[in-house]
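Morning F.,

Quick status update on the modeling queue. The single chain you submitted on Monday has been processed. Sequence for confirmation:
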Amino acid sequence: MPSEIEIVAGDVTDVEARVTARYHGEKSGVVLRGTLRGPFCEKARTLPAEFVFRATDTSAQVEALVPDPCMWTPEMPHLYRADVEAWQGNALVTAYHGTIGLRRLAPRRPVDFAPGTG
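Structure tokens below.
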């Protein structure tokens, strides 16, 4: 059974990343719960942290805020583990368990210091 939960990396900067989980099934009374854990990297030792998905203004959608995210690159493939469940009352409707890599969509802008300030 394919999961009806979609995980999307939204705004990703050097300072923070927003990861959203959306439920695409019947939304009547459905509550999403879950965590995002990481980073994990085969090429580096990391100290993973756990980020809780929190409710947003949109029904059947939750968001996790990752401060100081580790970006995925081919050289350093940092990944985060997403575990999200959709509940309707006491019944588990569907679950998502998978990984996501965080990448900036736009390149970094060069910093332009005024003369004498940098």
